[in-house]
UniProtKB/TrEMBL annotation:
A UniProt-annotated Pfam family: LrgA
Protein name (database record): CidA/LrgA family protein
Keywords, sorted A to Z: Cell membrane, Membrane, Transmembrane, Transmembrane helix
Species annotation: Aurantimonas aggregata
One Gene Ontology cellular component: plasma membrane
InterPro entries according to UniProt: LrgA/CidA
Stretches that traverse the bilayer: 27-46, 58-77, 83-105
Length: 118
């Protein structure tokens, strides 16, 4: 299991290194996640130990939100002044996400009838 956790952290570190080296506007962990995903696609299977570590992380995912919640509470006064713009942004981005997801599912989802032009 230590090897699997090390592999996850190595992908995150590689993502950080790529972000810093290339000056990309993406977070390093996102690039690391893409690297891990690519590795797993090429391997065509998920190692058992990596699956166990992933399941353990997902089981305790709520703990990872504690620092974010503490930060929000610490800056609550600052957020009050921006409440309208933050709220509006959250609503608009949620509606945009739902719309794009619906359009993609409509286009690519099961039950889509193929059109024949001939």
């Amino acid at each position: 299991m230590l090897q699997a956790l090390t592999a996850i952290f190595a992908c995150q570190l590689a993502g950080e290194a790529i972000t810093v080296a290339l000056g990309l506007p993406l977070p390093g962990p996102v690039i690391g996640m893409a690297l891990l995903f690519t590795f797993l696609l090429l391997r065509k299977s998920v190692p058992v130990s990596l699956g166990k570590v992933g399941d353990g992380l997902l089981a305790n995912l709520s703990l990872l939100f504690v620092p974010a919640g503490a930060g929000i509470m610490m800056h609550a006064g600052r957020l009050e002044g921006e409440a309208l713009s933050i709220g509006l942004t959250l609503v608009v981005s949620t509606l945009a996400t739902i719309t794009v997801t619906a359009l993609v599912m409509n286009r690519l989802g099961p039950g889509r009838k193929e059109r024949s032009d001939g």
